[in-house]
Amino acid sequence: MEVTNTFIPTAGTVGIFSMVTYFFLVVAAFAFLGTFIISLITPRISSPEQRNSLEPNSFILTTISTAIAGLTYYLIQSYYHDMLAEMATVSDANDRQTLIRESYNAIGQYRYIAWFITTPLLLVQLIALLRLPFNTYKRQLLGLIMATIFMVFASYIGHEQLSFDNEIETVPKLVWGLIALIDYVTIAFTLNKLWKEAGSQAHPAFRLSALTVAGTWGIYFIGYFLTLAPIDFNWIHVVFTITDLISLIGIGIVVYLVNSNRWQTNT
């Protein structure tokens, strides 16, 4: 549909699943914008028994992360909209799938650029819940952050293993994906080791938060490798979008509950 030369996608012109994908992309942009505004106006109430200097300020990281995610999803939905405008002129189903696949390879890079910033911020929020003395564990904590940055960057390099016509080059993508995956496993084992060392000192919210972060990162890796399979890449768009919402907003809610002393500890 066109209104004064402005294309407005509908299921009749681009198909129902593409419209569902577009729906989630726009909703994510709104949700992150809303969370950003809420995090700005919500009073920063810190629990009096907080021991880690990072923890009182960790909710600020939610403000930063959701601002970045909101801008990222605005760009993604905008470029996806442009792709739908072109799809409306294509009638062949195979050609439409090619367009979706090639556009995903271009549009998807914005997620990795955002993750390069938001993923380490998520990790810092997670580390704060361990309540470990920074000076004692400085080397391990800084190593975790650097490993997380490298994991995302390696995944981005893998995502960009494309031919001139934007088709995926399988072997190089697999290699970079495996490098990032090894890094992910190392991060998970290190976090688990630090959690055991922290013992009762760690906030009870750490376990749920760690499982959420590890689970969402795992989903990203599954989606990464599924791009090598002959599937509709709209599925990856939808799953990644829902996962981003869960990880960023979900962890933000946990941090807010901890900082406002609404998540009771066992001590």
Automatic annotation (TrEMBL):
The chain crosses the membrane at residues 20-42, 54-76, 112-134, 141-159, 174-194, 206-229, 235-258. Keywords: Membrane, Transmembrane, Transmembrane helix. Pfam families: Bac_rhodopsin (PF01036). One of its GO terms (cellular component) is membrane. It is a multi-pass membrane protein. It is found in: Membrane. The keyword Transmembrane helix applies. Belongs to the archaeal/bacterial/fungal opsin family. This is Bacteriorhodopsin. It comes from Spirosoma foliorum. The lineage of its organism: Bacteria, Pseudomonadati, Bacteroidota, Cytophagia, Cytophagales.
